[in-house]
Amino acid sequence: MLLVPPPASDQELLLCHDASYLSAVKSGALSDAQIRRIGFPWSEKMVERSRRSTGATIAASRAALADGVAANLAGGTHHAFPDHGQGFCVFNDVAVAIRVLQKEGVIQRAIVIDCDVHQGNGTAYTFREDESVFTFSMHGERNFPFAKCDGDFDIALPDGTTDNQYLAMLEDAVAKLPLADAQCVFYLAGAD
């Protein structure tokens, strides 16, 4: 079933993002440097798209808890930090969804399995001091972002890694994750 979810509300976004950053995004008051860091110009449509992709991850998370699995085709904005966007990511949809589910009391612990070619630096930073969320990122070591943020478990792959090498490393890594401790697992397949 394909559903069109509501956009993320201010209250939901503020569970992860700073009020001053959210205000600047909403009003178009981002500085030139902030806009360059995000990677595309501000517009009302950009704000709407960012709210909706985050709302879709929240909705998919609720559906996954009810049905066992769900997907958001527009999520994976793992370069967004609490106080700024980066790398075409305005809001961190997975981080917001985790905080919404925790606030609602439907989960206490979550795991993020991020297999995008880019390290999930915004997600790692957001949960850096939070033992309730375990972050795993397997990414290209020489790919964006060039300054990485340490997550709980990171594998930086060298250029030239083959499919077989990748799959073997991923299988080994997933076996080491504390999956039994989490009520919800978020998998990013390279969407940003």
Walkthrough of the structure:
The chain has helices at residues 10-13, 19-27, 32-38, 44-67, 93-104, 121-126, 163-176; strands spanning 110-114, 133-140, 153-157, 184-188. It is an alpha/beta fold. Helix 6 (121-126) links the parallel strand 1 and strand 2. Helix 4 (44-67) packs across helix 5 (93-104). 37% of the residues are buried.
At a glance:
With 192 residues, the protein is α/β, with parallel strands linked by helices.
Could you tell me the number of beta strands?
Answer: 4
In what order do the strands lie side by side in the largest sheet? 3-2-1-4
Overall average pLDDT: 95
Radius of gyration: 16 Å
Instruction: Work out the strand percent.
Output: 5-15%
The helix fraction, in percent, is: 25-40%
Number of helices: 7
Termini distance?
Answer: 23 Å
Contiguous uncertain segments of 5+ residues: none
Q: How is the topology of this model organized?
A:
Elements: H1 10-13, H2 19-27, H3 32-38, H4 44-67, H5 93-104, E1 110-114, H6 121-126, E2 133-140, E3 153-157, H7 163-176, E4 184-188
Descriptive keywords:
192 residues, single chain, 4-stranded parallel sheet, 4 strands, 40% helix
